[in-house]
Amino acid sequence: MNASHSPFARKLGAFVALSKKEHLTLDRLHGRRKVFPAGKDMVHQGQTNQAAYILASGWVCSYKILADGTRQIVDFQIPGDFLGLRSVLFRTSDHNIEPVTKVEASEVLVRDLLETFSETPRLATAVLWAASRDEAMVVEHLVSIGRRDAKERTAHFLLELSARLKLVGLGSLSGYDCPLSQYLLADTLGLSAVHVNRVLRELREDGLVTFQHGHVEIHDLDGLVEFAHFDKTYLDHDGPLLR
């Protein structure tokens, strides 16, 4: 896929109208493509001298392992997302990145980032926007775990995925493909897999959304948004600010 039409370009295009020069720079960033199998960490906690990646296809999760061996998934990354940006800027990676599916990603070294930021400041600003947006999502997830009940939390998360996937051309207002198991959702939402199963059943019986067989089907978007009190302002999808 030409980088100009990649999910990453689509995502950055929500902030800045990319010029020809900036598209050419993206082509260079996509130069080192790698394929990773599901279930094997691309980045592990404590690792040093780690590259970052631009995800071209597939899904991954970022997670932390606690001292007792339990796992908290911080977020999922989808095509168009920058993986491990902190890992390449920090001396030591503070989290793990594991493919949920087979993924294809472009390796980005720190020198690549520095050259890109030096040559194309607007592109650097767009990457900063993407990183800030990721931080906003983590804040929203903290609010969900701390203050939303299990049903609202799940509905909010499914709506967030919908908005993110739609932005990069992989979803619509009516639904999207989603490879996440109930166990993965449980580790994300701070619930048990049994509780996730019950919540998904209730959302389906309420006529709001169905998540089955790797697909999320939204039956009543307005109703789901109202129920979850979902305000997508934090995702900042209103169109390019820089032209």
UniProtKB/TrEMBL annotation:
One Gene Ontology molecular-function label: DNA binding
HTH crp-type domain location: 148-222
Protein name per Swiss-Prot or TrEMBL: Crp/Fnr family transcriptional regulator
Lineage: Bacteria, Pseudomonadati, Pseudomonadota, Alphaproteobacteria, Rhodobacterales
Source organism, top-level taxon: Bacteria
Keywords for this protein: DNA-binding, Transcription, Transcription regulation
Database matches in SMART domains: cNMP, HTH_CRP
Biological process (GO), any one: regulation of DNA-templated transcription
Organism: Szabonella alba
Cyclic nucleotide-binding domain segment(s): 14-90
